[in-house]
Structures are given as structure tokens and as C-alpha cells.
Amino acid sequence: MCFNFIMPPAMADILDIWAVDSQLASDGSIPVDFLLPTGIYIQLEVPREATISYIKQMLWKQVHNYPMFNLLMEIDSYMFACVNQTAVYEELEDETRRLCDVRPFLPVLKLVTRSCDPGEKLDSKIGVLIGKGLHEFDALKDPEVNEFRIKMRKFSEEKIQSLVGLSWMDWLKQTYPPEHEPSVLENLEDKLYGGKLIVAVHFENCQDVFSFQISPNMNPIKINELAIQKRLTIHGKEDEVSPYDYVLQVSGRVEYVFGDQPLIQFQYIRNCVMNRTLPHFMLVECCKIKKMYEQEMIAIEAAINRNSSNLPLPLPPKKMRII
User: Fold this and answer.
1) PI3K-ABD domain: which residues (predicted)?
2) Alpha carbon distance 20, 13 (integer Å)
């Protein structure tokens, strides 16, 4: 005799205000408790899917009606902090996130002065991504897990050390290495347009898109030159700029095309040629790349300092027993 058992569908906890089917947030709003630096407590009905930025503006409009408002600084001097669902204290620096994604405990949001500890912020982001606080991993006693963590930590520390002292361009090569394929494509001429490669380029924060027919053996910096000349032709003379002030970024990806190699050797270009699609690039100013580089160097320095401060104390010398 055979019995077929069918498991019932999983159901969300109706008492969880963050669950999609929760009856506690059926109208789309939830009560949130706000704690101000002045000691004032405010409760507001907040849209469940509102962004942190929108919620802060909502709160600021109400704060004017409460005592000691004159003791507060400008709104941009503050950010929200909370205890999240992984029991980790988290500062909500990214104000584009939605409240339902942050999932603060109870929920309570505390208005705090902006801090600049990149190490703690990184730990918080890692905890949010993996769905578990890093302090929980620290409490694990599994030898296999601990061995894996030691190996991965050593690998990560070696990777961090390899980035220290690099120039921003060398950092870019290490962090976002271009994908090259030096071998010659078969039937390449059949995939090109009269032996030419057609690419589309636009500048960041600009709606103009320029198309160029170029040699597949041209290097990326030449595209920068063509795009700058085209923009000057259309918009007239601007401040003096150099092709070396920009880096080509694949549109819609965190992938960069730079260096002395011919364009046809870049994997992205090859894929576009083989699929007969138009390669699309965005010209990003080098100062933006340098800012990314500086932020990572600050985070690396904080991680190195934190690791050195957490080193175990050396064992005391053994006492020799004289007979």
C-alpha cells in the first residue's frame, strides 16, 4: 500500500510585520518609534515600502513641533540607526534603501550623528548580505568552519596587502581586470561592417550618444579622443580636457575597457561582434574612479588597523625550574 503525503504550502508568520502576507501591515503602513538626540520620542505611521530618505523627511517635518528643536543640527548631519533582524546595530548610511528591506527590530529608528567608521559599516553590510550577524560566526565552535574561516581570512588579508601602495590605475587593473582574449577569431571579417567595428559612446550625465565606425585594432584611448572631439563639435569649446581624463566603462556593468590592447581583444567586444550587437560604452571621469580608489584605501587601512589591534597578546616566557 502506498501513501502520498503532500506538504502544505509554507506560510509567513502573520505576526511578522515584514512578511508579505502580514495582517499587521495590511494597509501598507506601520507604526515606527523614533528616538531623537534631544531625548524626544515620536511615533509616526510610516509607509512600509518608503525609503529611508523619505522617512527622514517625514520625521523632520514633525520635529519642528516638538521641544528643543533648536538644539538639533541640519538634517544632513544625521542618519538613522537601528537593531536589524540579525540582532546587529546598523547605521543606515544608504538612504535609498526601503524600510521593508532594512527590517528594524520592533521597529525603532534612532536619529544619530553621522559617523565615519568604515570597518563597522563594512561588517554591518556583510551581515545584511549573508542574513546573519558576524558576531554569530565568532561564536561558532565547529572546527571545520573555523579552519575554513582562518584560511579565507588569510587569503583576504594577503589580497588586501597586495592592494596597499598601488596607484589608482594599478588598483583599477587589480580590482576590475579587463577580460582579454589574444587569439584570432575565425570568420571575423564576416561579422564586421566592411571591416569596421561600430561602437556607441556617451558621457556620464549626458543624453547625447555618439556612434563611430572604427578599426577593430584601435585601442580604447582613441575612442576617448573621438568622443571628446565629437562633443566639442556639437556643443562648442569647453574647458580643456584630455582623453586620459576618462575611462571607458561598459554601459550597465561595472566593467572597464582600458589599456594598450586592440579593442577586438576585449571579451566584451568579441561577444558583441559574434552576436552582432552594438558595443555601448560610457565615458567616466577618472576623478570618479580615484574617489572609489580612495574610499577603498580608507577601508583597507581601517581593516588593517583593526586586525593589528585584535592580535592576541604574546604568551609569557616559560619559567625554567632549576634543579
Assistant:
1) 26-115
2) 9
pTM value?
Answer: 0.52
Most confident of 118-132, 136-150, 187-201: 187-201
Residue 288's beta-bridge partner residues? none
Backbone angles phi and psi of 267, in degrees to 5: -60, -40
- Residue 8 neighbours by CB under 8 Å, 6+ apart: none
Q: Which residues contact 188 (CB under 8 A, 6 or more apart)?
A: 216, 264, 273
**CB-neighbour burial class of residue 80 (10 A; exposed 0-12, middle 13-18, buried 19+):** buried
For residue 127, the 8-state DSSP code is: H
- Grid cell of 205 as nine digits: 550625465
- Kindly give the interhelix angle for 286-309 and 118-130, rounded to the nearest 10 degrees: 90
Query: DSSP class of residue 69?
Result: G
What is the secondary structure of 192-250 as a DSSP string? SBTTBEEEEEEETT---EEEEEE-TT--HHHHHHHHHHHHHHHH---S---GGGEEEEE
Which ranges in the chain belong to alpha helices (H)? 52-63, 99-102, 118-130, 134-138, 143-163, 168-175, 188-191, 220-235, 267-275, 286-309
Per-residue pLDDT band at 174 (split at 50, 70, 90) = confident
Q: How far is Cα 243 from Cα 248, in angstroms, rounded to an integer?
A: 10
Q: DSSP assignment, residue 270? A: H
**CA nearest 85: which of 65, 110, 104, 62?**
104
Which domains, from first to last, does the chain contain? 29-130 (3.10.20.770), 175-289 (3.10.20.90)
Q: Which residue has the cell 568552519?
A: 145
Nearest 10 degrees: CA dihedral of 20, 23, 26, 30? -90
**pLDDT, tens digit, for every residue of 41-95?**
999 999 888 899 899 999 998 898 888 888 888 888 899 999 988 788 888 888 8
8 Å CB contact between 34 and 41: yes
User: pLDDT tier at 5 (50, 70, 90 boundaries)?
Assistant: very low
